[in-house]
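Incident review: delayed structure delivery

Summary: a single-chain prediction request sat in the queue longer than the usual turnaround. Root cause was a stuck worker, restarted by the on-call engineer. No data loss occurred. The affected request and its eventual output are reproduced below so the record is complete for anyone auditing the incident later.

Affected input:
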Amino acid sequence: MKKEFLHIVRDTRSLVIALLAPVILLVLYAYAVTFDITRIDLGVVDYDHSSISRQITEKFAASGYFEIDRGCENSMAKCVQALRMNGIKMILVIPRNLYSDIKKSREVKLQVIGDGSDSNTVSIGIGYSQAIIAQISAGIMLETVRSRGFDTKAIPMIEPVPRVWYNPELKSTNYIVPGLAAIIMMLISALLTSLTIVREKEHNTYEQLVATPLKPLELMIGKIVPYIILCLIDVTLIVSVGILWFHVPFKGNILVLSVYTILFLFCALGLGLIISAVSENQQVAVMGTALGTLLPSILLSGFVFPIASMPGIIQALTYLVPAKYYIVALRTIFLKAGTGFFTIWGEGIFLLIFGTIFIAASAKSFKKTLD
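Output delivered after worker restart:
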């Protein structure tokens, strides 16, 4: 343990990278990864040129979600070309005789064309457009009823009153930053310990480890403890940046966060030790760590893709990803007040089991022989 502390302190460049890399990655990816879509380029083809059609166009422009492309306005050919060239994402087509059909109480349909190659943006954009059109339609209906002498206040209506708890503004940053913290720490933690034993092999000091009277499990604990302390510093920096820079609310308990972080670090660092024990050189260790931590943590942890939407066999595989449990714990601790140890005890049990298995497996993988 003392030897690992000395190595960390003396290797100044690696220490700076270990401390700064998580913060830099968090800042970069927190800005890059967002589910908030507030600007969708829209082409409008108005065949009616009436006051109502202009009102519809103005509603879309004033919503704050759509940016009207004036370069292809009122030209279907130009809009199609812009859609094909990725200049716009959607086209709103307002049919002829819109005004007269509304005045005659006929049903009117507006066509909304989306670029399916960007399905996420288009699906959100279609939801925005449906809400805007529904609002316009309700206004037209009420105006029609009022013009015929009816009291619009006497018309019974059901109005939804949504309430969102824990993240009232539905900011994706509050959802993304805790998840990113788990992904980044999974990679950095495993990467730090994945180089410890294999570095001994490359620096010809492996014989000293073999010659010590310590048992393999004792050696693994001695190597992992210094990195737990280093990673706890990393987590402290990440949490501070998330709260102070990105203004993610922290409603939970610091002690609960610390306990679940330590359990998670045992998993990540233990996995790195397993990779280090079976690797022949540092290049193999780095590649193994990236493949064994980064990809599963992003794809199978629920960070981006909902686990409930995955096929059954893939859902079963997600139970083997430690980052899944830490992401749930972080988001719960950050956003839900009153979160205690027993609120998310299931995640804690899984992290404890995985940490124990990984540390034991790393000790088992370490052979006190030179063969």
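Verification: The chain has two domains: 2-34+173-365, 40-154.
Action items: add queue-age alerting; document worker restart procedure.
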